[in-house]
Amino acid sequence: MQQDDIVSVLNDLIETSRDGQYGFQTCAEHAKNPELRSLFLARASECEAAAADLQLLVSQCGGKPDDGGSFSGAVHRGWVAVRSTLTGYTDLRLLEECERGEDVAKARYKKALENALPEPVRSIVERQFQGVLRNHDQVRMLRDRFRAAA
After folding, report:
1. Is 114 left (phi over 0), alpha (psi -120 to 50) or beta?
2. Which domains does the chain carry?
3. Tens digit of each residue's pLDDT, the chain (150 residues)
4. Measured between alpha carbons, how far apart are the two ends of the chain, in Å?
C-alpha cells in the first residue's frame, strides 16, 4: 500500500473516531441515567484517545492528520439533536442513536481492514476495531435492557 493510501485510510478512521467522540459527548449531555452518562463520557474519552493514536500514525507516515469529524457525522449529530428535540431526550432513544453510530464505525473499520495495511498500523486498527465491537455490543445490551424496562 502506498503511503498516501495509508494516510487516507487512517484519516477516515480519525473522522470516525471524532464522530464517535462528539456523538457520545452529546448523548452524555442529555442522558438522564447516571450509569449511561458515565458510560457515554468514558466512550467519548476512548474515541478521543483512538483519534490521537491514529493522528500520530498519520504523522509517522508523513501525512497531515485530520483534526475534525466527518460531514456525515455532523449530520448524524444534528439528526440526533433534532429528533431528540421532537421526541424528548429519552435514554432509550440515545442508546438507539449510539447503536446506529457504532454500526457506522463498525463498517468503516471493517472497510479499513480490507486494505493491505502494514504492521504496526494494522495491529492498531485491529485493536481499535475490537473496541468498536465491544462498544457496539455494550450499547446494544443496554438498549435492550432499557427497551424491556419501558
Report:
1. alpha
2. 3-149 (1.20.1260.10)
3. 899 999 999 999 999 999 899 889 988 988 999 999 999 999 999 999 999 999 999 999 999 998 754 455 455 455 455 455 545 689 999 999 899 999 999 999 999 999 999 999 999 999 999 999 999 999 999 999 999 998
4. 49
